[in-house]
């Protein structure tokens, strides 16, 4: 008779291994967390049928349509759109097309459950049922999501590719280089991204065996870039995403660093010559190297040389690839300046800290970590892959503001188990990747909605309390993931490469646990979470000593772009909130502006009462920020700081948050540090230096408006044509395209006698006069600015500036260009003005060009720039809210957070509509809690042509945001980690 012995405690629904039992009885014993025995998760929710009709925001054409799809009534329009258009399998319109969320969850969860059963993960049939029900419940209630390839491929006739992240390798042979092109193509075809390090390829300063000079890695990047661009154009799932890394001691490093910056110079020259260089424009295809993110792999030796106080100490050797000998000695500070200057100019290259990365490497005996995936969160062996899944942190926050750490830990256990099971049945694009992934079983569990969680609990993103809570949660997640990995090792064995790397792997686990001990709690949530994490790490170390680990790595922090929308997350990955106002699609069709639902939760957490909350929310709805909000204490302003807007988080605030969570991530963090347009090269250098000192593994920056090839809005081409006239503009496009290109600028001088006007003004106490002259047939032609005493230096500078602008106008430079460039400049004098249309100015230039825009630009053009007269602003508020500003906004917000959605009739206006309403019920009825009292079109009208939260934010702050337009639907995308995501259709520019 065999004796059953528990080898470890089963806290948080943990597993037990039955010692002495037969092999067939080994497996996990699982306990229910979210579900009830005898009740299927589908029976606990209310289902409804909806129509999904998705249109291109720019021209109104329908790019996707599927009617009668089935979703829970609690799922938003956006989540319904994304899942239906992206993840339902089968030809649209065919009987085999999926039409219900139940079908895709069953397809995926059923495959995972069967594989877990076959491979011995469950002790009994009851454990298999618990696993299936718990996974189903969490997906159904948007508690977590697998990465996109799982939804694309699992349970279909396609290869079962489950990984979003791949790392390739390339050697210094032509066969290997050509194979690199092939492997990338196969990965792109499957909807994933890949990265690799080109440092093995000999430099252009070295010789070939034949005696000729080598081409160097940068030349081979051209071919790979062209390949990625072609597959991107023809792919059915997403754009290609890739990462190219080069070591800082490679002799071609300077050429690599400046590659994309030189292309950016070319873009500017071609644009100024009249070519269409917008992203997706006809002529942008001539630009090279744009399909990859570039990163420099720097060493501690290099960074110490950069900081050296003597020229001798700053000397750094570039080494040949064949023999490792120094072929050239450079000044490390000069090379670092080239890196930071290029990043300042075009956001590339990013930086990866080689020694830090490899110090946290669990498998050094099997090879170094040389590269990363496209978004820099997955870092492990060459020719490997990683499948991702992310948890929605806000789902674990109670209405009282308490983070449920024990329940979070239980959810992590189920998710990490499912992720490991997927490797048992997964297909891979190449045999080397398949072997490495099966031998090391790399996983990437992570989370989304951190920014929303911090705000909802009353924490500023850039605060010690916010960082403490983020660190505690991340530590708990990683500790539980590795504990379950050790439990799995006891059930189905450790990964194949573990025995060789056991000492190194256990050393890294101890490093994680030691970092956990350094967290200092500052509140009840992080204190409770940290206490549990400390206990978990002790169990993890003990179980690892006994069984080893099933997975070479467990966690990453991914962008969570598309899957973040699928889970209805307010924020993605580790990011803060984008802005306090949001562009929300309505169930009856159309859209409206709404204050983010996290804001009232935050105000309640901070102790504000109902009436105070309503007043503050109303203020935010009208102004887009909290500055001078009625009743809001100034010490609470920082809680509502966002990535963009009036109170944007400082760049170092992003770096500090990354540093807080990095010690608890097996891989790295996909995140871009946003910097203002006026940031300097020195600011970039400081960010990159501090990233090294803080112990980050990778870092990338983006400076506003540093890239030409990212269109600010569609009106750049339409020159102010309103959205209502888009069809007419499109029809006229061929005529415009046929217009002969003028080979040289032609000056159109003003006549001797021309109409003019003079405006007196004061800005921050400084007085001046603006005189403008125009052509008789309309159109501004000259500007004169009087500021300061006659003969003063300032007066002379303003005279020269006026002449330069006037000549530019006469040579045909659009006034819109000047207005876009000179508004929002910040310098003294600034402040209040005496102009009722421009009450506050950030500088004299800001005021002058706002005034000029109001006098000479049409309303549509000004709307694109966020410039309105006082009368126009009043009309917008009146048209949008009438006399019920507070109630209108709060009613829509409450419907999003609390109200049970009412089933509504299908409409033909696009978006999602519901079937089954009572006869005669009208969408948008006053009695309908899910739709604003006004019609959708009326609500949306004051927003101009806003089609996403990014475009809405532009109208609020009066400044265009750098973000590409979605290739699928034309909506302006928003940042998501190191990538961009489209709120309209869910498309991303990278992995998720």
TrEMBL record:
Cofactor(s) required for function per UniProt: adenosylcob(III)alamin
Classification via InterPro entries: RdRp_reductase_class-2, RNR_2_N, RNR_lg_C, RNR_NrdJ/NrdZ, TSCPD_dom
Region Disordered: start-end pairs: 1-27, 910-936
Comp. bias intervals (Polar residues): 1-14
A GO biological-process term: DNA biosynthetic process
Enzyme class: oxidoreductase
Ranges of residues in domain Ribonucleotide reductase large subunit C-terminal: 163-702
Keyword field contains Disulfide bond: yes
GO molecular function: cobalamin binding; cobalt ion binding; nucleotide binding; ribonucleoside-diphosphate reductase activity, thioredoxin disulfide as acceptor
Keyword Nucleotide-binding applies: yes
Annotated ranges, domain TSCPD: 751-855
Domain of life according to the entry: Bacteria
Reactions it catalyzes: a 2'-deoxyribonucleoside 5'-diphosphate + [thioredoxin]-disulfide + H2O = a ribonucleoside 5'-diphosphate + [thioredoxin]-dithiol
Ribonucleotide reductase class II vitamin B12-dependent N-terminal domain sequence ranges: 52-142
Swiss-Prot/TrEMBL keywords: Cobalamin, Cobalt, Disulfide bond, DNA synthesis, Nucleotide-binding, Oxidoreductase
EC number: 1.17.4.1
Function: Catalyzes the reduction of ribonucleotides to deoxyribonucleotides. May function to provide a pool of deoxyribonucleotide precursors for DNA repair during oxygen limitation and/or for immediate growth after restoration of oxygen.
NCBIfam families: NrdJ_Z (TIGR02504), PRK06556.1 (NF005122)
Similarity-based family: Belongs to the ribonucleoside diphosphate reductase class-2 family.
Protein name (Swiss-Prot/TrEMBL): Vitamin B12-dependent ribonucleotide reductase
Organism name: Nakamurella flavida
